[in-house]
């Protein structure tokens, strides 16, 4: 969920200086229009990693917009008055009225996350808090409110560097974090529970925007753009927004760098190392699948990737040392008539492995947010809701002990071209290349966006994506096998 | 939530026999149209009290409709195959395809309720199960499914009688309930957790229908009518239903008897007993409010009722023996400009009592589902969603220790007429009667429906309604005071 906010997004000074004046003017205009219409309030929630720039973002908003129309609310210790009433009373009374903007700092999300990280509440209670929040936000949106939820993110390394800088800076050294962020464990817990919270509370009418906080210019410009687009779209609506999907529910990165572009595609493996490692990993997998502890688990691997990225080859290497009775491969084709008469996920439900079993999906339920999205086979509403449906589905799997490993096998455009041409030249490979493949290739950038969004929204603490740099087939195959083995071992190691 | 399914609804044989042929024909027609269109599946969930006729209802549906297009699914013990997969797999694989109807007996609701009643799960885990279910049903409805959820109900007395009959009947004595329903505690727990589950999972696109099960004819006709109306409405839609609100989300009773009509309005109190009891209850209230245990609670009383039912008089008697600093009265009038710029509930949030305090609302947030609904001041979507928003709000109150007592003060039409006329005759009372009052009176039956729906949907295990028979003012005032005192004492008695 946070992967693409850890790749070091940045904006250079020139680009920034060129973009800011127009953005500020447009934001101001939208803000006045908001006051003029006075049809709905705007609520901005700021959350995320310590040091990722929450405070700076508030300052910026006050600088860029008219501060008389923005109320910044911070919620630290509860006052006596607040303690004497229901927990949400503190938020109820500080909601911005129609036409105004409220920035909520240390809001209901901070409260539940801190509670969980400090073990004042358990998982079930966290889920209860999440449920209350979802109902509260739905009500606010039904009443017309426009809610923006920002998660400002830093990788652990970035955070440590940032806290160090702040500490060394006499202007900032007074800032002592409420959570002991110096500890690795605090960061890890915060991120883990943060993923759970974001996964459960992202709604098309109130989505989370994860923004990398390391580079100030990138952070400011991104937050500003998202606010502007969302605000303008809501102002254009004839009615109050009322649970309308946000204009830009999935934000393309403004520095045009996504997770997939940031992979190191030069990684290779020479033939000898390959042979050696392949055999070792294959043997390890065969052993793990026969392990007694496998009875409590199932293994489910999803293979997605660019056309010609080598999914089939990788799957054959995975099964290389396995007894055919040990595994099951599900090639996903067009739905049958029977499948079309059922909910979208039904055709995958029916192939879920029983405990003790191993199933590989050659393409999967992610088709909805990849090919169906790009080719327009389903409506925007359909693929937008698919993210949370998929997350719910995968949670059911992992709760039941399924070890879920998801691969995106990535190749670059040049490699794909070479493989396509090679396929056309080789008689026995010609069946593998069709008109569709060439057409998909023309939509390369649309697919890149779809993949980035998919990973951002469905790489969760329970079912992360593994991106496979697949320009080199040998490197890719070994990485696939090793990832499977590590996932199984990690699952076996948990009590 | 179950109050109006405990008043002894019944349909006589003649009415039944006259109604059934047309209903059956229409149901069959709708069923064939459903198959013809094959655009969406219908899922019927049957839950409720043991002995309330779940099995009989299934038989009936098979009899009335074409059984080839209905699949009845029962879920008892999980099979080995099911145990090896996620808990919902058993439901996934038995969903009816588009064009068909599935009747789910012993479904996800039975599972969570039995788990909670038998203390295999706690409250937080029950809420988790509820959350999973809400997401699952939303997904099904987004995919087009039309879901009917029936809760067949019996009062405890009715249930005991029914189980006795079954036991004595050689044809039925083999039926042994999985839960030990003979025990009062089982019934009480089942109803209590049932209320919680229904409150949390009723959605306009998948509402619960609570149907009294004691009289077979009433039960059959009600279930049949609800199915027919819902099905016909969905078939008329140009698109798949997709989370459309049900046609008849709040069902008027087919025997034209609601909760309010079933009150015994002849109850009175003579002057002497009144004086004596009034003073005693007033003193008791004053004492309870000064009790040390009051520090952990607040008392909030909501007064709603027919015009001229005596709300003001009752409130004055409540405060009769109290120090004015001890209580606060909130008369609810038209919202101010500031209040109009906020969510609907905001103007009530601001008057929530702090711990230790006592606040009375003379009219309340229920205005939305009463006057606003009847007079059309808000859209149907708005008042429909208000039920769950109100339930959420009241849950926050009671969770925070607020003792919430809600009064509906009911008088009959004749009494109201006399009081209106009396007001017009008496100079100092004339200000109390306006054109509005006479106009509201013309909408008497619409208000009766609204009140019945309100009580059905917001009388919950945490915040039940108390209906006050208020034709006799003395009787009413003492009952109000006594109810407040009993609620406080019950709260103090809980650890």
Automatic annotation (TrEMBL), chains A, B:
Coiled-coil region list: none
Name recorded for this polypeptide: Polyphosphate:AMP phosphotransferase
Organism annotation: Geopseudomonas aromaticivorans
Cited InterPro entries: PolyP_AMP_Tfrase, PPK2-related
Annotated ranges, domain Polyphosphate kinase-2-related: 11-233, 269-491
Pfam family, one: PPK2
């Amino acid at each position: 969920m946070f992967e693409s906010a850890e790749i070091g997004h940045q904006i250079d000074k020139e680009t920034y200086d060129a973009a800011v004046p127009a953005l500020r003017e447009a934001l101001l205009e939208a803000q006045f229009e908001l006051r003029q219409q006075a049809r709905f309030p705007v609520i901005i929630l700021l959350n995320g990693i310590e040091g990722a720039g929450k405070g700076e973002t508030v300052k910026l908003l006050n600088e860029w917009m008219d501060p008389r129309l923005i109320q910044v609310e911070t919620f630290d210790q509860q006052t006596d008055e607040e303690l004497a009433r229901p927990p949400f009373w503190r938020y109820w009374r500080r909601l911005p009225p129609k036409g105004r903007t409220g920035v909520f700092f240390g809001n209901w999300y901070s409260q539940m996350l801190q509670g969980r990280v400090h073990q004042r509440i358990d998982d079930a209670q966290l889920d209860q808090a999440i449920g209350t929040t979802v109902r509260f936000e739905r009500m606010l949106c039904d009443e017309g409110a426009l809610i923006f939820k920002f998660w400002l993110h830093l990788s652990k390394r970035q955070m440590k560097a940032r806290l160090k800088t702040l500490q060394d800076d006499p202007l900032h050294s007074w800032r002592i974090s409420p959570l002991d962020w110096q500890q690795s464990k605090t960061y890890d817990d915060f991120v883990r529970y943060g993923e759970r919270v974001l996964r459960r509370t992202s709604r098309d009418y109130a989505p989370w925007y994860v923004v990398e906080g390391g580079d100030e210019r990138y952070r400011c410009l991104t937050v500003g753009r998202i606010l502007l687009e969302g605000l303008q779209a809501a102002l254009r609506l004839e009615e109050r927004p009322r649970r309308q999907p946000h204009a830009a529910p999935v934000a393309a990165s403004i520095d045009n760098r996504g997770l997939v572009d940031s992979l190191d595609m030069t990684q290779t493996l020479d033939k000898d190392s390959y042979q050696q490692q392949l055999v070792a990993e294959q043997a390890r997998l065969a052993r793990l699948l026969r392990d007694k502890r496998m009875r409590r688990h199932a293994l489910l691997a999803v293979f997605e990737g660019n056309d010609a990225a080598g999914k089939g080859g990788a799957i054959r290497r995975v099964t290389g040392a396995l007894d055919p009775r040990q595994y099951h491969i599900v090639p996903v084709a067009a739905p049958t008539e029977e499948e079309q008469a059922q909910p979208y996920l039904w055709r995958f439900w029916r192939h879920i492995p029983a405990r003790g079993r191993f199933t590989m999906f050659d393409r999967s339920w992610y088709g909805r947010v990849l090919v169906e999205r790009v080719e327009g086979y389903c409506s925007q509403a359909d693929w937008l809701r698919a993210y949370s449906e998929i997350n719910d589905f995968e949670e059911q799997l992992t709760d039941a002990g399924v070890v879920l490993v998801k691969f995106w096998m990535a190749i670059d455009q040049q490699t794909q071209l070479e493989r396509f041409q090679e396929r056309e030249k080789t008689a026995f490979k010609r069946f593998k290349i069709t008109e569709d493949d060439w057409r998909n290739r023309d939509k390369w950038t649309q697919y890149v966006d779809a993949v980035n969004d998919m990973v951002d929204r469905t790489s969760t603490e329970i079912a992360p994506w593994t991106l496979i740099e697949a320009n080199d087939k040998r490197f890719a195959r070994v990485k696939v096998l090793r990832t499977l083995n590590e996932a199984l071992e990690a699952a076996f190691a948990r009590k």
